[in-house]
Amino acid sequence: MNQNVIELLEDPVFLRYVLDNETRQGMPHYSSSIHPTRQEIDEAEHILLTLDEVGGIFSDEEIVALKNRIKSLIEAENGRKNN
Questions:
Q1: Cα(79)–Cα(29) distance, rounded to whole angstroms?
Q2: Which of 30, 36, 67, 80 is the most exposed place for a label (fewest CB within 10 A)?
Q3: Those residues with Cβ within 8 angstroms of residue 41's Cβ, 6 or more apart along the chain or in another chain
């Protein structure tokens, strides 16, 4: 896993793209400061979609932190939709 994959996994725009079925049409979305290859995008998507199944990539603490980041993003999005 390289720096672009890590940045994608930390990018709220990319997290929203991967986890929200409504935004999964068309080209992947991510912050303009990241310049990943298709392979890096696919790797980051795979990690997010199989987070509980991947072993040896992240420590337990890193998985918890990523899940918390995802949860915060979802809660923030839901808050904006409800306002």
A1: 21
A2: 80
A3: 8, 28, 30
Where do runs of H (alpha helix) occur along the chain? 3-10, 12-19, 38-49, 60-82
CA atoms within 13 A on the CB side of 71: 6
- The length of the chain is 83
| Selection from 2, 25, 22, 8 nearest residue 70 by Cα | 8
**Could you tell me if 29 and 12 are in contact, meaning their C-beta atoms sit under 8 angstroms apart?**
no
**What is the reported pTM?**
0.69
The SS3 of residue 55 is coil
Among 26, 7, 29, 34, which residue's Cα sits nearest to residue 17?
A: 29
- Residue recorded with tokens 């918390």: 68
pLDDT at res. 54: 60
* Enclosing H/E stretch for 28: none
